Each structure stands twice: as C-alpha cells, then as structure tokens.
C-alpha cells in the first residue's frame, strides 16, 4: 500500500494550519525502541498541540515534527511502528517487590488473605485496530496470528508479629511467584507460559475458530508461601519476659487466580469480485468483502476505501497506582502503550495514480458517522456515509496485465494475494447504436433506434436491465429485437440518441456506450433550416470577395464599363 504520509502533504498541511486549541496529553520527546524517527512524532494523536520549538543545526526540527506539534496527522495505513513501540514499552514496565503492586487505575483487583491488589491486565494486542464504524459500534479487529502483551502484579500482606500470653507468632515471606500464565480463546486454552510480570502470549490461526468474534482471556496463577513461627515460653509468665525455648514452624500457602478478558473480531479477508477487459485494453476490477477493509493494490495502482488511521496513547495507562500496605499513590505512567484506530475520513475513497487509475464506485452499508475522542483533531465524516465494503476501479493495462491483486485489511499485516485470472470475468464489448427517422411532420417526428453488439450483431435488450437509451433527454428501452420507437415534438436541429450501459460489475455481459445523430428532412421548417445552412457559406464567400475588392481595387463582382 502507499506510504501513510507524504512530505508534500505534510508541508502543505503545515502551511495551512493556524492556531489550534490545546488538548491534554504529552507524548515522549524522543523516539525509542527502534521506532522510525520520521514516523515517531506522528504517532501521538490527541497530544498537547501547540507551537513547535523550532531548532536548527544537528538537531533541527523536521517538517513532520512541526506538523505534529500543530495538529494530528492521519495515516493511509496502520503504522507498523505501533507494534514496535508497544513491545519496547511493555518490556520497560516497572519492577516491584512483594510489598508493592503497580497497576493501572482501571485494573480489576483481587484480594486474598495474604495476596492483595493482585491483577492481570492487557497492555496491548499486536497487531490490532479499533474500528470506529458508528457511534455505538467500535469493534477491536485483530490479525489471525498475533500476541497479547499483559502485565501482572500483586503484593503480599504479611501479618504482624503477635504476642499472646506465653507465645509469640512471627510471620515472614518464604516464597512468592507467578506460577503460570495462560491465554484462552472462547474458553479454549491457546497458550500457556511460565510465570512473568510481563508475559507475551501468542495465538495462531484465530480464523480457524468458529465465528469471527471471540473472547481472549488472560489468566495468571499467583502463589505465596509464608513462614509462621510460633515460639512458646518455658520459663516466665509472659512471652515478653520469659525465655522462648520451644518453637514450631509452619508454611501456610495461598494461591490466587486472576483474569482479564477482551472481546475481539478477527479480520479474515475473504475477497470476492469480478473483472472485465475494456475494448481499449483497460482493466476493470470490482472487489468486495463482508468486513471493513482498507483497499487493494494491483500493478502500479493503489485503491483505498473510506478509511484512514491514527494512533494515540491508551488513556487507561496515562497513570499508574502504586499500592502498598500504607495506601495508594497515583503517579504519571512511565510507559505509554499506543493503539491504532480506523475512522471514516471526510477525504473519501481514492485511486492513485490518477493518470492511470479511475475510481468508479464504492458500495456497502450506510452508517451514521462516529465520534472521535475530543482531543483527536482529524477530518471524520460528518454525515451518514457508505462503508466501502465494495470498491470498483478502472486501470490502464493496455501495455501489460497485472497478475496479482493484493487486498489489505484494517489491521497491520493482514493482506491477501489473489490471482487476477481467478476472478470471474464479465465480457465487455463495443455497441452499435443507429437512429433513423420513420416519419416527420411540421409538429412531430417519429424515430427508431436500433442497438446491437458491435462484434456479434446480437440485439441488445435494455428492458428490465440497468442499461438505458436516451433520445433527446427521453429514456426508452429496446426490446428483444434491440429496437425502440419514439414519437416526439419536432424541434430545430438534429435528434441525438445515446446508449448508457449499466455498471459492468452488476451484469453478466457489459457494453461500451455509443451515440448517433440524425437530421429531419422535409417540411417548411426543414426547408428554412436547409436554406439557412446554405446561406452561411455563400454569405461568407461574398463578404470575403468584398473585402478583397476594397483592399486591392480589383473588380471581381462588378464588370468594368468601357
């Protein structure tokens, strides 16, 4: 697919942007985790826009950095750098001791007798895209193969030492760990890993499960072993004054299972379509699928639907909570996972390069426009729009025919190669339309139009089809013989008929349009028209001769008298 953002577009937008209201959020200042330096400043939609601090020299501010400082920038395709960034941020999640649990404010915490503030949460799913289809429809699309990045933490609440008459009970932590982490798809175990505070759980062939909507559940088993020593007084009245000579040691164990679920829709590209070859050699392609998708490339042409993309930080990870036995402390999060979102853009579908590619049609479900987060400043559609499930284009293929059509989904990396010759072909022929005057009076004229296949001579019947024949603005339908007769008021000038074929992708045999024009002879009006047409060249010749006489003195029209 085409690059998401081009320098010329960036500079053009930069020149057009004026003052923009400030919004919340502050992105990291420098790229990390191997993220492309050019793409990095564009990843933070919804950040605090404002005037960029322009620098020169070795650390000169780029056009992309200036643009991103003023406004949010859409991508034509989901940016791959989001996966790279999330992987690095996930590995940088803070480590803690058994006395502290670090978790996002939205985490679902579990508590046991000794294990407190235990949780597992999904940091990111890579790759994935949140599709903003409508105000109340925002499915999370994932690839058939991907990874779930999770975070797990807990703290251990150790009972205080207790003095009770002749005994003293002392508690210490003997062992604690995350035993096991699991990923389940619709209650079916997909992956199991050894315990980790930041597990990465992969899944494969999600498209082989029944249905397209699934529940991913991450589970973790957490256990703690405490050492409880009970010392008994053998000489004295209380445990605080006597000698403690006898003791017993026990090791109570507690295990806690925590879980977190995410509903996802697997993006499985099953493309159907038809093709045609125009008489001049151009190739027509109509492709469609049951899910929102990005578009396709064929040869040198890139065709996209209504969707554009942006990436922004996950707001649920803006801050983290440090939970201890003394209470909770909220701090700004040192890690910032990103998510990718798709939205219907006001820019609409497109086909490039325009010199050799023409977008003919898009079709699909009509939806109400979605709303973007208030801090994201992008041009989303403002009225009900057509989700581009079907895309039709015409490309110049007179020199060579592309072999493969590559379709792309809304999720990064979800692509399918389809051989062009495997797509059903609709024949497209030239047509021949002829118009004849059957009868004419001073008030009206009757004409007959004949329409047939130019190659085979087979009559073309437009009755009940999407095709039509228009005679001087009046539509008519041809019959099984390919003819139609129309009586109409007589007017000055010729009578023109044109054949308007229906969309080739909605028929079993397509045609190219044709036109014909006739002039009506006979009658007073026709005589005047004929005299008028004859008079124009005669008058023009006489006027030219007159000018020639005046300039040269020659006598061409007048004879000399002796």
What report would you give on this structure?
The chain crosses the membrane at residues 531-548. Residues 92-266, 271-416, 429-518 form the DUF8186 domain. It holds the Pfam family DUF8186. By secondary structure, the chain is mainly beta. Among the domains are: 1-73, no CATH class; 86-266, no CATH class; 428-520, Immunoglobulins (Immunoglobulin-like), CATH 2.60.40.10; 522-562, no CATH class. The chain has 4 helices and 34 strands. It has helices at residues 7-16, 63-70, 81-91, 523-552, and strands spanning 101-103, 115-131, 140-156, 162-164, 167-185, 188-194, 200-203, 213-235, 243-250, 253-266, 272-277, 283-288, 295-298, 301-304, 307-313, 319-324, 327-332, 338-344, 350-352, 357-363, 366-367, 385-386, 390-395, 404-408, 415-419, 424-425, 428-440, 444-453, 468-471, 474-476, 483-489, 495-500, 510-512, 515-518. Strands 2, 3, 4, 5, 6, 7, 8, 9, 10, 15 and 18 form an 11-stranded mixed beta sheet that branches. It is elongated and about 155 Å long. The model is unreliable at 2-25 and 52-60 (pLDDT under 50).
């Amino acid at each position: 697919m085409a690059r998401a953002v081009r320098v010329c577009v960036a500079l053009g937008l930069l020149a057009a942007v004026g003052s923009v209201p400030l919004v919340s959020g502050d992105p990291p200042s420098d790229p990390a985790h191997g993220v492309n330096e050019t793409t990095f400043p564009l990843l933070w939609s919804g950040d605090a826009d404002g005037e960029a601090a322009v620098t020169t020299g070795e650390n000169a501010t780029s056009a992309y950095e200036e643009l991103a400082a003023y406004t949010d920038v859409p991508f034509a395709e989901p940016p791959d750098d989001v996966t790279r960034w999330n992987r690095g941020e996930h590995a940088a999640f803070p480590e803690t001791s058994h006395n502290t649990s670090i978790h996002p404010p939205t985490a679902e915490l579990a508590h046991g007798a000794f294990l407190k503030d235990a949780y597992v949460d999904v940091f990111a799913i890579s790759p994935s895209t949140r599709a903003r289809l409508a105000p109340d429809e925002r499915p999370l699309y994932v690839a058939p193969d991907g990874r779930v990045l999770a975070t797990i933490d807990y703290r251990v609440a150790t009972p205080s030492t207790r003095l009770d008459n002749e005994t003293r009970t002392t508690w210490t932590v003997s062992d604690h760990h995350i035993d096991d982490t699991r990923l389940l798809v619709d209650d079916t175990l997909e992956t199991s890993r050894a315990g980790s505070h930041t597990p990465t759980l992969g899944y494969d062939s999600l498209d082989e499960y029944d249905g397209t909507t699934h529940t991913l559940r991450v589970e973790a088993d957490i256990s703690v072993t405490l050492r409880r020593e009970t010392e008994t007084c053998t000489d004295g009245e209380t445990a605080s004054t006597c000698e403690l000579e006898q003791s017993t040691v026990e090791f109570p164990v507690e295990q806690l299972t925590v879980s977190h679920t995410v509903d996802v829709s697997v993006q499985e590209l099953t493309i159907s379509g038809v093709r045609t070859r125009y008489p001049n050699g151009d190739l027509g392609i109509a492709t469609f699928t049951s899910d929102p998708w990005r578009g396709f490339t064929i040869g040198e042409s890139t065709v996209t639907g209504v969707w554009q993309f942006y990436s922004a930080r996950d707001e649920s990870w803006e801050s983290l909570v440090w939970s201890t036995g003394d209470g909770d402390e909220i701090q700004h999060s040192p890690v910032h996972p990103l998510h990718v979102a798709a939205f219907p853009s006001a820019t609409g579908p497109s086909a490039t390069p325009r010199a050799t590619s023409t977008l003919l049609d898009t079709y699909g479900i009509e939806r109400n426009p979605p709303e973007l987060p208030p801090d994201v400043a992008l041009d989303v559609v403002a009225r009900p729009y057509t989700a581009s499930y079907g895309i039709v284009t015409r490309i110049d293929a007179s020199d060579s025919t592309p072999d493969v059509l590559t379709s792309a989904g809304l999720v990064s990396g979800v692509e399918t190669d389809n051989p062009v010759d495997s797509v059903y072909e609709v024949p497209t022929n030239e047509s021949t339309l002829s118009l004849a005057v059957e009868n004419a009076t001073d008030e009206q004229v009757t004409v007959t139009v004949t329409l047939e296949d130019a190659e085979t001579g087979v009559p073309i019947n437009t009755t009940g089809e999407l095709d039509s024949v228009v005679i001087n603005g009046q539509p008519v339908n041809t019959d099984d013989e390919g003819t139609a007769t129309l009586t109409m008021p007589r007017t000055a000038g010729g009578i023109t008929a044109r054949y308007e074929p229906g969309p080739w992708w909605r028929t079993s045999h397509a045609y190219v349009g044709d036109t014909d024009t006739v002039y009506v002879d006979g009658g007073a009006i026709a005589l005047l028209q004929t005299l008028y047409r004859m008079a124009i060249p005669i008058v023009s010749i006489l006027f030219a001769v007159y000018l020639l006489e005046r300039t040269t003195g020659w006598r061409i029209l007048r004879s000399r008298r002796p």
